Amino acid sequence: MEVLAYVAVFVALVVALVIVGVGILIATTFMGRQSIPDGLEINGLRIVKDGFVSISVLPLAGGEVALFDAGNDKTGKAILDELSRLGLGRENVRTIFLTHGHRDHIAGVPLFPNAQVMALSEEVDIAEGRTSPGGPIMRVLPVRPTGVKINRALHDGEVVDLGTARVRVFAVPGHTAGSAAYLVNGVLMLGDAADAGSDGHVKGSPWLASKDQAQNRASLSRLAMRLAGEGGVEALVFAHSGVLKQGIEPLTLAARRW
């Protein structure tokens, strides 16, 4: 009995150490990032905080609304509260653009049956739960249906006309195979492909949840080069951190460092 007791204590200690180690690993991975600016309005978009992730809400003509990602909360409280503030309801959400298919970005999608859900073609199977997104954490999690149905598969360089707004689509693979960035009204939304550091610098995607960091940085560098000569980018928005309002320059400087 004493041996069993010692074994039980030993196992409990090992489990506790593993949990603490994982917690420290996650904390260090996401430290040093600016906080999400809940309620920030920029060029017609409003940033809505949903726990540790954000959604960008874009009101359109005729009471329609487009969402960029759909949050981590299956009840969609943060999104529904924002719609209520606008005097609207869930039926007004007509378009949802997904930056990628990680579950903390797609949880609210089923709440909006009237919405056309869009993602890059390479991300469809991930968002719908038929393929693992890859990455150190995601590889050990089971692959299962998400309840999300992608209605329109997008492609790099495509432009989606929403009437009063036009959304440009960019492929930035690396965080996941089909990670996307969206440019609308001068605001470039990068999802988890990048983050705003507390020092104002752009960071690449966190390795712990990313499929291929080298590909991620190469994708961001190409995007910076692609947009630097065009102008038109006024701000960078990130899903897990702050907003940078120096145009494309922070991304261009990051590309030079990489």
Task: Please characterize this protein's 3D structure.
- 26% of the residues lie in helices and 23% in strands.
- The chain has 258 residues and is of the alpha/beta class.
- It has a single domain, classed as 4-Layer Sandwich (Metallo-beta-lactamase, Chain A).
- The N and C termini lie far apart (58 Å).
- The relative contact order is 0.14.
CATH class: Alpha Beta
Spatial separation of the terminal alpha carbons = 58 Å
User: What is the alpha-carbon Rg in Å?
Assistant: 19 Å
N-to-C SSE series? HEEEEHEEHEEEEEEEHEEH
DSSP helix count? 5
Strand content: 15-25%
CATH superfamily: Ribonuclease Z/Hydroxyacylglutathione hydrolase-like
Shape: globular
In short:
This protein is α/β, with parallel strands linked by helices and 258 residues long. The protein has helices spanning 2-30, 77-85, 124-128, 213-228, 249-257; strands at 41-42, 45-50, 53-59, 65-68, 93-97, 116-120, 152-154, 159-161, 166-171, 180-184, 187-189, 194-196, 202-204, 235-237, 243-244.
What are the salient characteristics of this protein?
globular, 23% strand, 7-stranded mixed beta sheet, single chain, 26% helix, Metallo-beta-lactamase, Chain A, 5 helices, 6-stranded mixed beta sheet, 258 residues, alpha/beta
Topology of this structure?
Layout: H1 2-30, E1 41-42, E2 45-50, E3 53-59, E4 65-68, H2 77-85, E5 93-97, E6 116-120, H3 124-128, E7 152-154, E8 159-161, E9 166-171, E10 180-184, E11 187-189, E12 194-196, E13 202-204, H4 213-228, E14 235-237, E15 243-244, H5 249-257
Parallel strand pairs: 4-5, 5-6, 6-7, 11-14
Antiparallel strand pairs: 1-2, 2-3, 3-4, 8-9, 9-10, 10-11, 12-13, 14-15
Helix pairs in contact: 4-5
